[in-house]
Amino acid sequence: MLIAELAHHLIDARAATRRPDYRCPACHGPVRLHRGQQVGPYFAHLPASPCRLAGEGETAEHLRGKRQLATFFASWGLTTLERVLPAIQQRADVWVDRATQPVAVEFQCSPLSVHGVTHRTAGYHRLGCYPLWVLGHRYAHQKLNWSLLERFMTWLPRWELCLLFWDVTTNRLRVVHHLYQDAAGRYGGQTTVVGSVAALMVGPTHMVTYPSLDLAAVQRRWTRQLARSAPALRPIQEQVYLTGHHLLGFPLAFATTAITPPFLGRGLLLWRIVFGTWLFATTAPLTQQRVTALAHRSFCLVAAHDQAVRVQVPHLCDHLRTQFLAELTTAGYLRATATGWVICRQPQWRH
């Protein structure tokens, strides 16, 4: 920790001298000042301390980054290092007294579970505070994946869905923004480096573009994965096979190259294939209730989600279902009725 208590006043480790009566601002237990050549001055609890908010094991990156972030966000309002919040039993790395709403900056350099992020985020919300998760080196080199997005993805004006990374060596904020998922399930986003809060408020200065999807390349990749019995595709292939078809022969009516928010698990294309397969294999009347149930069952099979810790996309499955059914109706495969739909013709599977 960077801040300790001395005679009922807070003192920064940079301004402290060695003495035995420093206390933790949270638990009021004794702490000791440490100084080193590689790590700046900091306080640490004595061994076996019962403090629930102890930040032991903090890396040099974390200690250095907290100071840098306090300076970076200073134009938003008065910043306080390691603000102790007794009401929620938490300590914010940097607390910003912003005029419109206080902001708690969490510089996350160590592993933290979904439960941990959820718990701490909920605590800040109870105080009416906006939690801003900023990620360190450990996370900066990870490939975009659902585990990372689920915990730390947020939505900011002009940046839309994004992740924030802090580089202590350059003293810059890297924003991976306009996060998306292509139809084959791969995550992507644009990257912009900003050097000030003013630049963060302005947003990206370059045009956001999304790469096109090569469906032939997707099928080649699926062919290799199916040959290796890849666990991601196996349950989907099994369900398609039970209807007398093969995944690789999906009808062109089910194909899409659309991008989606990054919540679709194995991707929009597989969801449409599964949903479409079950839809046209159904012998019972296609009532609104039955079609909705098939869409949500397909949603679960492709490991899709409609929310993360910080953001949610309500009714995502219903929106995709409505869009897909409208396409099939326009193409003449379905006809809408007062109670649901009837099948006019079957999509052609390829061999």
TrEMBL record:
Domain Competence protein CoiA nuclease-like: 58-181
Source domain of life: Bacteria
InterPro entries with a match to the protein in the record: CoiA-like_N (IPR057253), CoiA_nuc (IPR010330)
Domain Competence protein CoiA-like N-terminal: 17-53
One Pfam family, short name: CoiA_N
Descriptive protein name: Competence protein
Native source organism of the sequence: Levilactobacillus suantsaii
